[in-house]
Amino acid sequence: MQDSGNRKWYDKFSYIYDWTGDYPYHQVRKSAIDNLQLQEGDVVVDLFCGTGINFGCILDHIGDTGEIIGVDGSAGMLQRAEQRVKKKHWDTKRIQLLEQDLRYIDEDFFSTTLPESHTSKVLITLGLSAISNWADFFDSLYLAAPAGTRFSIMDIYCEKPTLSAKVINYIGSSDCARKVWEPLKAKSLDYQEEWYRPFRVLKVSAI
């Protein structure tokens, strides 16, 4: 959602993004967040955070001292995320929202973004399928992250260009044929993979 055309699309899409109440992603998101093994005081970098739909579940895990850094390339999505934070009466000191061109990650991204003396976790949901240079982006992200950073990725995958895949790609301005988990799998020493079929009718899986 971060290429110039995608950002404009998601600025418009933000107005209706939450209408479905996160159906059918709810269980998949929860599993992705659970896989971060969050603890009291953790700082979660929520990349492609969109309207902040992950925030509530994250806050349930990180206690009163943890923080969320929500990052997105769409100003419209971040505006909706800010509205969500206010509506839920969450502590704004614990949730930082950043507009960032997510086609690129500088090597000092984490050092300039993260508070000192905190354990960081990185959550990426429905983002790598929506940027053209996703593999290079993840490589840069991984290299920039502090040693020991835990990553969790949730995205859509459909191997064949079926009608179902075309519908998903159109709605999300994405490419769900990408095997976005492979860079993490190749680099990780403790890799786990889970598959879900939230789109049973459309025959598209989430990982």
Please explain how this structure is put together.
- The protein is of the alpha/beta class.
- It contains 8 helices and 8 strands.
- It has helices spanning 4-13, 26-34, 55-62, 75-88, 109-113, 134-144, 163-172, 182-187; strands spanning 43-47, 67-72, 95-99, 120-125, 150-154, 156-157, 196-199, 204-206.
- It is globular, with a radius of gyration of 16 Å.
Keywords:
single chain, 207 residues, alpha/beta, five-stranded parallel β-sheet, three-stranded antiparallel β-sheet, globular
Summarize the model shown.
By secondary structure, the chain is an alpha/beta fold. The chain is built from eight helices and eight strands; from the N terminus they run H-H-E-H-E-H-E-H-E-H-E-E-H-H-E-E.
Kindly report the oligomeric state of this protein. Answer: single chain
Number of E strands: 8
Main sheet properties? 5 strands, parallel
N-C termini distance: 18 Å
SS class: alpha/beta
Roughly how much helix do the residues carry, as a percent range?
25-40%
Describe the global form. Answer: globular
Q: Radius of gyration, rounded?
A: 16 Å
Strand order of the largest sheet: 3-2-1-4-5
Beta-strand percentage range: 15-25%
Query: What letter string, H or E per element, gives the SSE order?
Result: HHEHEHEHEHEEHHEE
